[in-house]
Amino acid sequence: MKNKTELSIASPCIGNCCLDEQDMCVGCFRLIDEILIWGQADDHRKKQILLLCDQRKKLKF
Length: 61
Fold this sequence. Notes:
Elements: H1 4-8, H2 32-37, H3 43-60
């Protein structure tokens, strides 16, 4: 059974998983360390990661 944290904030993964030269996923804009901890992260940390992803995406485009 999944706990509340797992159900509350979905992974930003879009299935386009490929790391660039900075170890950032070109699909979801997470860094490799953020991808690796996502499953254990609490909601607060996941929100932080999502904000950082949004900032990275805006810098790329």
